[in-house]
Amino acid sequence: MELFGYDLSNKKTLITLIVIFVVLGFLTASLPDSDEDSDEDTEQIDKKVFRDLKFKDPYAAEAGKKETANVAEEEEGNPYEELNELIGLTDVKKEVMSLVNFVKVQKQRKEKGLKTPKMSFHLVFTGSPGTGKTTVARIVARIYHDLGILKSSRTVEVDRSDLVAEYIGQTAVKTNAVIDSALNGVLFIDEAYALTPKDAGPDYGQEAISTLLKRMEDDRDKLVVIVAGYPDEMKRFIESNPGLKSRFTRYINFPDYNEQELIDIFGLYLKKNEYTLSDEARSYMRSKLEEILPKRDKFFGNARYMRTVFEKAVQCQANRLAKQNNVTAEQLTEITLPDIKEAME
After folding, report:
1. Between these two residues, 155 and 34, which has the higher pLDDT value?
2. R_g of the chain, CA atoms, integer Å
3. Residue 180's beta-bridge partner residues?
4. Assuming Cys at both sites, which of 8, 145, 158, 314 could form a disulfide with 153, CB separation 3.0 to 4.6 Å?
5. Contact indicator for 96, 138 with CB cutoff of 8 Å
6. Are 125 and 226 contacting, i.e. CB atoms less than 8 angstroms apart?
7. How far is CA 28 from the centre of its chain?
8. What is the reported pLDDT for 69?
């Protein structure tokens, strides 16, 4: 009897064939059952290779610097009164109250069964540093809560470093986590234009923007986003993506403070910390501001500048009084001309 030309009556030949079939069977069992299994194995390998590749974001030098975003918790008090009491910002107050009036009227129309236009509550704040954008964003969050637009008056304040990760695949996760923390409140993104660096190549900021736009749509009833930054940079930022342009349609510009407004802001720091300013020091401050303001650029700190002057003046006063004996309460509270001169050098 023969098989494939082999004589099966030969005992040695028969044993050899049996061994061959056993080995072939073992090898066949060890192979993937289907192309699907093979593809799955390949996919797992690809994922491992992709996970092990670490592409650093060249624009995320500050990424990971802060452990958590800054959260402005809910506050007591009347946000409308606080808005009105802010120094300057006349046009800003008008814009915010115009939005409030619109919302109130639309709610009345809805209660009477009338049609109401679709409203977007997302805002773009433009202006130089220290012009009150963050302060107004917190107040707007409380106003939105009062109007029933949001369930919470909380504001989560972030910048690029809170949204963009250093390595590929991590930005969406990081951005989603920040958005989750802001749900039912306001997400305030300061210097939002940094998500789209000018003349930049591939950048993870785009991934943050895509994630943000999706969540603004998915969570449109429980998320309000306010973006802020310099006017020209914010215009470029909004126009960089059609999704941004369609969602951010209301702009509020924050002008630089004038001379008197800056002096009034300095006065707030004095009052809050129980200090006074001598007449000579006040006159010098006014003349110095008249000299500085015409030369200021977009980086001028406005209220931040006055806070810095206050902190320096207090330090100058301390250095001056430390050399004296029997210092009176009046001397401990008064900021004098030498203090202001040194602070504003």
Report:
1. 155
2. 33
3. none
4. 145
5. no
6. yes
7. 58
8. 67
